[in-house]
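User: I'm putting together notes for a lab meeting next week and I want to include a structural view of one of the chains we've been expressing. I don't have a solved structure, so I'd like a prediction I can at least talk through. The sequence is below, exactly as it appears in our construct file.
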Amino acid sequence: MTGRTASEAVICEGFRRARKYRPVSMCIIGAAATEAASRLYASVGFTQKTDVHLWKKTL
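Assistant: Thanks for the context. Below is the predicted structure for the 59-residue chain, given as structure tokens.
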């Protein structure tokens, strides 16, 4: 885990595993809206933050 936090290592492992599917981009659904989370996401290369509003109806 040289130089990485455990959280960064987990996210980067996800990137590594996803590469075989050749994704164009990746997003985190339900990402925490905290300053610490924003620093974590930026530290592993995420560059955009967009607020998403989800409408749901339980049937």
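A couple of points you could mention at the meeting. Residues 9 and 25 are 19 Å apart (CA to CA). Helices lie at 6-18, 35-43.

User: Perfect, that's what I needed.
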